[in-house]
Amino acid sequence: MSLLLLITAVVLPLTTFARSVDLEGRQAGNTITVNLDQKYQTIDGFGCSEAFQRAVQMSKLTKEQQQYTLDLLFSTTKGAGLSILRNGIGSSPDMSSDHMVSIQPKSPGGPSSAPNYVWDGSDNKQLWVSQEAAKRGVKTFYANAWSAPGYMKTNGNDANGGTLCGVSGASCSSGDWKQAYADYLVQYIKYYLESNVTITHLGFVNEPDLTTSYASMRFSGSQAADFIKVLHPTLEKANLSSVGINCCDTEGWGSQASMLGQLSSVDDLISTITAHSYTSSPGSPMSTRHRVWQTEAADLNGQWQGGWYSGGGAGDGMTWANNIYTAIVNANASGYLYWIGAQTGTTNSKLIRLDGDTVSPSKRLWAFGQWSRFVRPGAVRVGVQGASSGLRTAAFQNVDGSVAVQFINSGASAAGVQVKVSGFNSSTAAAFVTDDSHDISDLTVSLSDGTAVVSVPARAMITIVLKQEEAASA
Ligand SMILES: *[C@@H]1O[C@H](CO)[C@@H](O)[C@H](O)[C@H]1NC(C)=O
Ligand SMILES: *[C@@H]1O[C@H](CO)[C@@H](O)[C@H](O)[C@H]1NC(C)=O
Ligand SMILES: *[C@@H]1O[C@H](CO)[C@@H](O)[C@H](O)[C@H]1NC(C)=O
Ligand SMILES: *[C@@H]1O[C@H](CO)[C@@H](O)[C@H](O)[C@H]1NC(C)=O
Questions:
Q1: 332 close to ligand 3 (CB < 6 Angstrom)
Q2: Is the dihedral of CA 20, 25, 29, 30 positive or negative?
Q3: Protein residue with least CA distance to atom 4, ligand 3
Q4: Where are the domains of the chain?
Q5: Which candidate, 113, 177, 306, 469, has a CA 20 to 30 Å from the CA of 439?
Q6: Could you read off the pLDDT of 300-324 as tens digits, one per residue?
């Protein structure tokens, strides 16, 4: 008996040793350990917008295709499970072309006149999309104005730049419109509340560093600070202090970083720092204690292609899986939004293409889903140790305790990985893959002694979800 035991004890380690040498020979360095005690930023989510009447386009689909499209965007079982919706607060006097109509299309006369708000119960169909998103679990609604209405601005037009009358360096014969604009934004939030949609974040400007022929408004950092000093108490007085002020949706990451100094006087009044990816994309963290979201990125002009990998093109799904990785892991972003969810037309500016009643999801959508479905709002990014050659790796712990581990394999061959989570009794493992031929499909994963073993296919993104053994139930 004891001799047998001894032999077993000698033989087993040898076998284990031989096998691990073999594994290392083929899969050098692909054992990673997730360290839950190493905590980074908290994630608010991933999202898109249906602003500029893209929601109207969606509403023209058949009822069935509407539901399909909404599921593709927001369902955590049938789609990407996006968790943030960015709505455009209208500033235009009408709905011609793709204008977002204002809730006060006509000037009330002056900044201290009684307001004459108009609520059409639609908000360019964005209210409907919001309600449908909420049904599918979305809780983060970012309402973002591109501009104030023209009559509140130095140029008398909601388009073509100009700035808000009353901020430093912008005086108008019509007076100081800061308070009227703050009241206007608060009224917009109240209309949504009456329709049971709780706006959680409010932005008062979009791309303040750009003048364009559509709704646009210029703000320097200090002008934005002037307005935030009025907006914040206005939200408080309306019992809406839970609505966070976002600033400033600059065209690029770098321009927002350089605005932070001028915002320091209102740092306590800001919730979230927001920037787009057009003039510079997120590469490194901004110097702020606030959460930072990348709120608008897209391949604006590339001709529609829905594929995963065509050599790393700007519209490739895998390119977006990587773009999100860089923003979250290298630049400390807590949120990442594509420009448009679903839209007609022939460019890659959306995740889903609408053409008549044909709804075509792109692999960009599934790239977003590979993150958004498994890294839920409130998740904390955690540490990953151990090199995994040729693979990009990130890990998160969700509010429900589950751990989600992402791998992006840009190589042309599959790579085996073994994942351990220290101090965590992984008792179930599931894995999901997106590549040329899969859209968040089940991937085989085995679990032994708390270590998940999986093969990451060539040019693919996978997510492993690990859950801990529950305390023995009755
Ligand atoms: C909002 O919710 C309340 C209570 O559930 C309900 O009575 C009301 O009809 C809802 N309003 C809208 C516009 O959906
Ligand atoms: C603000 O909320 C408090 C507590 O919920 C309530 O008593 C008060 O009436 C509200 N005030 C306004 C202006 O809505
Ligand atoms: C990352 O962002 C958080 C806020 O979400 C901040 O507290 C932290 O300091 C940032 N980390 C780095 C390295 O900038
Ligand atoms: C893991 O399971 C073991 C044995 O059941 C238990 O002693 C330990 O406390 C558990 N660890 C955690 C972090 O739950």
A1: yes
A2: negative
A3: 291
A4: 3-42+380-473, 45-372
A5: 469
A6: 999 999 999 999 999 999 999 999 9
